[in-house]
Write a structure and sequence with these properties.
Blueprint lengths: L1 H5 L3 H5 L5 H33 L3 H4 L1 H13 L3 H8 L1 H21 L3 H16 L1 H12 L5 H29 L4 H4 L1 H15 L4 H16 L3 H20 L9 H23 L13 H30 L5 H25 L5 H19 L8 H26 L8 H40 L6 H17 L4 H37 L12 H5 L9
């Protein structure tokens, strides 16, 4: 009986290997939808605020709830995969994501929408790391760069097209369709995963052995500490800027709880008989450096994804759709560059590829730091195209090299950690650069106002021209024209202060990222790690 139970069934032996590209397409549907939904809702927040009768502070929970739930499940993906199987976990999480999407579209109160968005986030949390692990297990060793190029295109395409897609839906349809659109796409993804994706038999046997030990020593304390630390940290990063950071008691408490629980979690995982998260993977300097640089890369990516549309819409007068279309060339460039870099990965040192990406990003940031109120789409596109080349050169070698020395049975652990560091990195980058933007705007305004005081001829001449123009229009009575001119002058000062602040932030992003170059010393992979011709075991 035992021999029968442990041997593969006749159906498993007879199953023909599945084409790797069918596997890739199958598992990319869920990851793409999860990546799009992280950004598509931001465009709809003003409409949701009016429809649900929520304040500005309350409506932000629609995004915060999703982000907190998303980050909770990422590091637990490997643990769940060992317990129930990678394919089963992926499909279950995709169903949760689709259920949350359907419920979000029917929400009539803010409480309902936040709860359903959290359900969406829980479902999306396991999609990225599971896809990354399955791709690494499916593609042969010599094609790992190409596998990560495909993964990179899917992950980066989401934030790029999310705002444009969201703006188009909001302009022409009801806001609920930003959620309902997931249902038919997700149904196709579920069918394809069920048909073409199968757990690797060797990894499944190893997972069964590890899960048996984990069941005997279930790390409940580790799970609780992880959940508390990540949820508090993500809340701190998402809401800190809106609450003046440590000026708020709630934000300060969240930071303290996140710090203490994270330290306790690290101690617990390094001493537990069966840790729920394999932190010992960070002992590998290649994995540690690749994951850290990847987190910094996403910090820059998410900050740019937020700041550029804001600059174009607030200062240049672009519509949401125009801003999204202006950002589209970056995604297109990344889609072209990523496969090329995937091919080069076996021929060129990943350190050289990453270095090219860092320098390209810095050059793109320098170009963006020269934007003015007179800039047009061409000026914006020039900078983001160079940045797109940089991100294309960064993502593929970083994700591939970081996992190059990780054993196949531990790939799910590594991809979970890699994904959560990227997610936290993106949140940290967004929080830091938004805070810097606000402070630089205030400082620039103070400096500009100082030059307008007293009896400076230029200031008086500008104010006088405003006043004469207002009087000539006849829209405002003569006694009120001076006050209107003062308000117009103030608006000009505010706009110029904002431009100066954006210039400083874009330039700072490029300079700071150059300091990542010394970390490339640790990103050393042997040629055998990149070109070994080992065929994958696709099917069970």
């Amino acid at each position: 009986m035992q021999a029968i139970a442990s041997s593969p069934s006749n159906h498993e032996v007879a199953r023909a290997p599945t084409n790797k590209w069918l596997v890739t397409v199958s598992i990319s549907f869920g990851t793409l939808m999860g990546a799009i939904d992280a950004s598509i809702v931001n465009v709809a927040l003003p409409h949701l605020q009016g429809a649900l009768g929520a304040s500005v502070q309350e409506i932000t929970w629609v995004s915060t709830g999703y982000a907190v739930a998303l980050v909770l499940l990422m590091p637990l993906t490997a643990f769940l995969g060992r317990m129930f199987g990678q394919k089963r976990v992926y499909m279950t999480c995709l169903v949760l994501f689709l259920l949350g999407s359907a419920l979000c579209g029917t929400a009539t109160t803010l409480t309902q929408l936040v709860a359903y968005r959290a359900l969406q986030g829980l479902g999306a949390g396991a999609l990225q790391p599971t896809e990354q692990a399955i791709l690494r297990q499916t593609f042969p060793q010599r094609e790992q760069g190409m596998a990560m190029a495909v993964f990179g295109m899917v992950v980066m395409l989401g934030p790029a097209i999310g705002p444009t897609l969201g703006g188009t839906i909001i302009d022409h349809l009801h806001w609920s369709w930003i959620f309902f659109i997931n249902l038919p796409i997700g149904a196709i993804g579920l069918f394809m995963v069920a048909s073409f994706v199968h757990d690797d038999e060797a990894i499944r046997r190893q997972s069964q052995e590890l899960s048996a030990r984990e069941r005997r020593h279930l790390d409940i304390i580790g799970i609780v500490l992880l959940s508390v630390s990540l949820s508090m940290l993500e809340y701190f990063l998402e809401e800190g800027g809106r609450n003046d950071w440590f000026e708020s008691t709630t934000i300060s408490v969240c930071f303290f709880v996140a710090l203490v629980s994270m330290m306790a979690f690290v101690v617990r995982e390094l001493t537990a008989p069966a840790p729920v998260v394999n932190l010992r993977l960070f002992r590998d300097p290649v994995f540690a450096s690749g994951t850290l640089i990847g987190g910094l890369m996403f910090a820059m990516l998410m900050a740019n994804m937020f700041l550029l549309p804001l600059f174009m819409q607030v200062l240049l007068g672009f519509t949401a759709t125009q801003a999204g279309l202006a950002l589209m060339p970056r995604a297109l460039v990344m889609m072209v560059v990523a496969p090329v870099v995937g091919r080069l990965y076996n021929l060129v040192s990943p350190r050289l590829l990453v270095a090219v990406g860092i320098v390209a990003f810095a050059i793109g940031s320098y170009l963006l730091s020269h934007l003015t109120l007179a800039s047009g789409e061409g000026n914006v596109i020039a900078g983001i195209i160079v940045q797109g080349v940089g991100f294309g050169f960064l993502f593929v070698p970083l994700t591939t090299a970081a996992l190059s020395k990780v054993p196949r049975y531990a790939l799910a652990d590594a991809t979970g950690l890699n994904s959560v560091v990227r997610q936290i990195g993106g949140a940290v980058g967004l929080a830091i650069f938004v805070t810097l933007l606000e402070r630089n705007t205030s400082q620039a305004r103070v400096a500009l106002v100082a030059h307008l005081g007293g009896t400076r001829p230029v200031a008086e001449q500008t104010l006088s021209s405003f006043q004469h123009a207002i009087q000539a229009s006849g829209a405002i009575a003569r006694p009120e024209a001076h006050q209107a001119a003062m308000r117009a002058m103030d608006a000009v000062v505010q706009a110029q202060a904002s431009v100066l602040a954006y210039e400083r932030v874009f330039l700072l992003a490029g300079i700071v990222f150059l300091f990542v170059l010394p970390l490339l010393y640790f990103l050393r992979t042997g040629r055998s790690d990149r070109s070994q011709k080992v065929e994958p075991h696709i099917e069970a």
